[in-house]
Amino acid sequence: MDKVEFRKILKKVEKPARYLGNEVNSIHKDTSKEGLIRYAQCFPDLYEVGMSHLGSQILYSVINSDENIYCERVYSPAVDMEEILREKNIPLFALESREPITNFDFVTFTLQYELSYTNILNILDLGGIEILAKDRKLDDPFVLVGGPCAYNSEPMADFVDIVILGEGEEVNLEVLNEYKEWKKNKTTREDFLMRVSKIEGVYIPSFYDVTYNEDKTVKETVPNREGIPAHPIKRIIRNMDEVPYPETLIVPYIETVHERVVLELFRGCTRGCRFCQAGMIYRPIREKSIETLKTSVDKLIKSTGYDEISLSSLSTSDYSQLSELTDVLIEEYASQNVGISLPSLRLDNFTMEIAEKIQQVRKSGLTFAPEAGTQRMRDVINKGISEQDLKDATTKAFEMGWHSVKLYFMIGLPTERYEDLDGIRNLAYDVIDTYRQVHGGKLSRKFGVTVSTSTFVPKPFTPFQWHPQDTQDAIREKQQYLVKALKNRDIRYNYHDSKTSLMEAVISRGDRRICKVIYDAFKAGAKFDGWSEYFNFEIWQEALKECNVDGDFYAYRERSYDEILPWDFIDIGVNRKYLEIENEKAKKGQLTQNCRKGCTGCGINVNFKDGKCFAGALSN
Questions:
Q1: N or C, fewer C-beta in 10 Å, the chain?
Q2: Contacts of 62 (CB under 8 A, 6+ apart)
């Protein structure tokens, strides 16, 4: 794009720094280099959100480590920028080179959230790329997706060429290396897709046919070509100490959602919460050594200038050497006024001991996630914590000088009763009582309890994948019940819109018939559906109606174990039978122990760890 025109455009938009592409630690290569492979890494949301996504930063570093591949960033332009691009007929461009994304070999997306899917179509449309995969020609970019929602990418099957299942550091480079060879002769798109379909962790939607029963359920999903795996299997990184990790992070010019060094301690989770998709799809547990983490954090602090280190994982306090690690970080960085933060805290004494240490440098916010209001409900979801744990944790926190806490719950969980909602109220008021006990019966002006509830959305590959979602009416009644129950000047109550939760449920457990719904919603103007100010439920209702698709069929219907689910043919390494057993235990309120205390038989060790899932000490 012409520099003069670019400057004029930037003067007309809010937050022009979103589009500069020359931030500290951004990577710039000569795009005229012969044989250079162009890889557009797209995040289907605003710059401020995408820049805070660790996975994107990791892949940006890994892919750019090859001098013959150039990975550049693309984000959904804000509404004001989109209007200018469309008005002036300027194709969407990558930040670093400011060249149109049609110039790229690959246009890739992370599927983090179902309500970002219309943004993906919008990016393709703004870039001048055919939205439907079947319409793309030989010289068009390949559209590749990955991320957690890719495990059920069927609602996006019409739009994507390649799906990456699992962790992307190795498999992306293998796909790109295969592309280097294919590009020498550049035969047909199908030829390339056939070549990469042999790579573990690659799924090609167009190479599979789906048929349906008369009752609208899936009959089968089968390969339509010879040599295609019947069950594509996810890819994992086996040794976390050997996988590349960024030595630098791009430092934005503007405020983003997270502004700090993010240190990934391990992947996977052993807690086994029955609603949690991440806890199932990211198995097995694989930790990084303290030595590896020390090397990473030192380079990142020096290259970014950030004054906070976030210890990140699905359940950070389960890291087996957390106490030792925090000691090392405090000793090394406290004198530099670099603080440490934990994303959320387990309700146990060990975690609060860690919190006591790290707050010596700087107090960060305190967030606890009881998830449910009663012990019965917490046992149903296999949360494994008690009311006494919350009492002990908040007492310790208030004694250490914290004046406010955030409590996170889910509503609409399977078997939920109104007594469980009363339990949410009781826990919030118990926190108030605990603060008074610590402070001589008084409440400080700084004191406050924030209670947030999200609506349960049944997700693929979880023990609760067979359950219906609560209806909108039921959810709204429960939310209003809690509004009244939590009416107190010291309690702030936040809840999610039931309409967005419904569409998330429809898409998350959707099949290929949802593709047309997403396409029609996009054509009718749907975008930024995860943002309340842009989400238009009427557009989605009309799209469902026009496509003759019953949203209730996907969201509100209980499935039987005999039903073939749209994602059943994907192999995540966790046995379907294990999920069924966990669901039955949930109905009885039976707990399953933490995997670190003994194998629970999910099946992941058979596929990925040669019979041994975790080879480390138990967490404290």
A1: N
A2: 169, 172, 173, 244
C-beta separation of 117 from 155 below 8 A: yes
Q: What is the pLDDT of residue 352?
A: 73
* pLDDT above 60 (res 233): yes
* Cα-based distances in Å from 386 to 208, 226, 292, 377, 451: 46, 53, 35, 11, 18
Residue at token pair 């609560």: 470
Per-residue model confidence (pLDDT) at position 347: 75
Asked whether the beta carbons of 152 and 77 are under 8 A apart, the reply is no
User: Please, are residues 153 and 510 in contact by the beta-carbon 8 Å criterion?
Assistant: no
> pTM of the entire structure?
0.95
Q: What is the pLDDT of residues 69-103, one digit of tens each?
A: 999 999 999 999 999 999 999 999 999 999 999 99
Average pLDDT of the segment spanning 310-323: 90
73: which strand partners?
Answer: 41
Number of C-alpha atoms within 13 angstroms, CB side, residue 32? 0
Beta strands 308-312 and 339-341 are parallel
Q: Coil, strand or helix: which one is 8?
A: helix
Helical (H) or strand (E) element with 201: none
- DSSP class per residue in 317-352: GG-TTHHHHHHHHHHHHGGGT-EEE-SSB-SSHHHH
Beta bridge partner(s), residue 107? 40, 143
Collapsing DSSP to helix, strand or coil, 146 comes out as strand
Distance of CA 192 to the CA centre of its chain: 29
What burial class does residue 348 get, using C-beta atoms within 10 Å of its C-beta: 0-12 exposed, 13-18 middle, 19+ buried? middle
Please write the tens of the pLDDT for every residue from 249-285. 999 999 998 889 999 999 999 899 999 999 999 999 9
By DSSP bridging, strand 162-164 and strand 202-203 are antiparallel
Q: Say what the pLDDT of residue 609 is.
A: 59
State the first-to-last Cα distance of the chain, in angstroms, to the nearest integer: 56
Q: Say if residues 527 and 122 touch (Cβ distance below 8 Å).
A: yes
Residue 290 CB contacts under 8 Å (≥ 6 apart), including other chains: 321, 324, 325, 328
| Sheet containing strand 261-264, strands side by side | 261-264, 308-312, 339-341
- From 242, 363, 342, select the one nearest 296 (Cα to Cα): 242
Rg over CA atoms, the chain: 24
Length of the chain: 620
Q: Report strand pairing: 142-146 vs 162-164.
A: parallel
User: Residue 523 has which token pair?
Assistant: 């054509």
**What is the residue-averaged pLDDT of the chain?**
94
The beta-carbon contacts of 602-609 under 8 Å, at least 24 apart in sequence, are 602/280, 602/283, 602/574, 602/575, 602/578, 603/573, 603/574, 603/575, 603/578, 604/283, 604/284, 604/573, 604/574, 605/284, 606/573, 607/233, 607/571, 607/573, 608/236, 608/238, 608/284, 608/573, 609/284
Name 211's bridge partners: 220
CA distance 319 to 237: 18
Q: Where are the beta strands (DSSP E) in 375-513?
A: 404-411, 448-455, 491-495
- Contact between residue 389 and residue 430 where contact means Cβ atoms under 8 Å apart: no
Among candidate residues 394, 387, 409, the one with its CA nearest the CA of residue 352? 394
Asked if 454 and 541 touch (Cβ cutoff 8 Å), the reply is no
pLDDT at 3: 85
